[in-house]
């Protein structure tokens, strides 16, 4: 899926992180003012700048880079992108800001989970952001862009440094990872297939369910997902996502004492999603489904493992 005009002055940009149609960034245009929501990785920045060039948008017209959270498939390119945008300010949750100013721990944490080879091959680099170009994105803040107001909403569950952005003009939520993963290859006659990215290290299923309920109060029409592109969003989709959050947690609990816990959780998640996709009438063959799912499930299983360890630690206190 190439860059796609979604209406309302919003463009979905394929960052081409790891593969096509996996990681989106968004460009919002309104009355001559421009904002990015998320950036992809350091290696994604040429795609973002090319999009500005194709639209004849001056780099000086970009006012904001708004980050849903600091995981590097969402925010890894922010420092490099900012170097080309002389008037832009980066909005980020207060828990994430210091890691963008000094990304040493963020870099080390990512390499610890994914390995140095993955970091170099798929993420590239991580450029520090000057502190004076960062603004804290706090719950309830409203960012003015042209004639529209973009409202910041604190949305823990996937990560404690996560915010979503409510756009009243499109009645849409720029949701980062909060409203799930829904790859277009899994669309069927039953609509969109959705599951939660339970990435390390701050998966909190009860909190995440509460966050989804709070977002539904906005009565949204659509969600702008990072993984991938725009989907309709309503109570039906929200309930499917909440069910899968609970399913993932239940799978982890059942396998908490397994000798090969990480591997067993990963395989159990895959079996669960293949079965769910079959019930959803996904037409993609199982081999292709497995390949796409596996890109996420190893990391999801790591997140569930960290969560299990945290629960055990709390129990033993």
Short description:
This protein is α/β, with parallel strands linked by helices and 317 residues long. The protein is 40% helix and 19% strand. The protein starts with a strand and ends with a helix.
Account of the 3D structure:
With 317 residues, the protein is of the alpha/beta class. It folds into 2 domains: 230 residues, Metallo-beta-lactamase, Chain A, CATH 3.60.15.10; 79 residues, no CATH class. The protein contains 10 helices and 13 strands. Helix 7 packs antiparallel against helix 8, helix 8 packs across helix 10 and helix 9 packs across helix 10. The chain is globular, with a radius of gyration of 19 Å. The model has no long low-confidence stretch (mean pLDDT 95).
CATH architecture of the largest domain: 4-Layer Sandwich
Whole-number count of domains: 2
CATH topology-level name of the largest domain: Metallo-beta-lactamase, Chain A
Cα gyration radius (Å): 19 Å
Summarize the helices and strands and which ones pair or pack.
Layout lengths: L3 E2 L4 E5 L9 E7 L2 E5 L7 H10 L7 E5 L5 H4 L2 H5 L6 E4 L1 H8 L2 H11 L1 H8 L10 E3 L5 E4 L2 E7 L8 E5 L4 E5 L28 H12 L5 E4 L3 E4 L2 H20 L6 H19 L6 H30 L2
Parallel strand pairs: 4-5, 5-6, 6-7, 11-12
Antiparallel strand pairs: 1-2, 2-3, 3-4, 8-9, 9-10, 10-11, 12-13
């Amino acid at each position: 899926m190439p860059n796609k005009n979604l209406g309302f002055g919003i463009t979905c940009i394929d960052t081409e992180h790891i593969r096509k149609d996996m990681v989106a960034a968004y460009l919002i245009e309104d009355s001559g003012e421009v904002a990015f929501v998320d950036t992809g990785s350091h290696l994604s920045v040429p795609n973002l700048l090319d999009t500005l060039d194709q639209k004849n948008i001056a780099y000086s017209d970009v006012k904001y880079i708004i980050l849903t959270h600091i995981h590097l498939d969402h925010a890894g390119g922010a420092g490099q992108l900012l170097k080309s945008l002389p008037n832009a300010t980066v909005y980020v949750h207060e828990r994430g800001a210091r890691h963008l100013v000094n990304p040493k721990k963020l870099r080390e944490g990512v390499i610890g989970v994914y390995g140095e080879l993955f970091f170099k091959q798929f993420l590239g680099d991580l450029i520090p952001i000057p502190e004076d170009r960062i603004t804290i994105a706090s719950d309830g803040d409203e960012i003015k862009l042209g004639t529209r107001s973009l409202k910041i909403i604190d949305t823990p569950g996937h990560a404690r440094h996560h915010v979503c952005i409510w756009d009243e003009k499109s009645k849409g939520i720029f949701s980062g990872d909060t409203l799930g993963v829904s790859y277009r290859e899994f669309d069927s006659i039953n609509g969109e297939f959705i599951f939660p990215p339970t990435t390390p290290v701050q998966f909190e299923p009860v909190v995440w369910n509460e966050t989804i309920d709070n977002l539904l109060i906005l009565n949204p029409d659509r969600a702008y997902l990072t993984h991938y592109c725009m989907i309709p969003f309503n109570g039906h989709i929200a309930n499917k996502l909440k069910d899968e959050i609970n399913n993932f947690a239940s799978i982890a609990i059942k396998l908490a004492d397994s000798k090969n816990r990480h591997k067993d959780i990963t395989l159990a998640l895959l079996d669960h999603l293949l079965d769910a996709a079959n019930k959803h009438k996904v037409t993609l063959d199982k081999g292709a489904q497995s390949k796409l799912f596996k890109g996420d499930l190893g990391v999801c299983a790591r997140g569930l493992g960290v969560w299990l360890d945290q629960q055990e630690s709390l129990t033993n206190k």
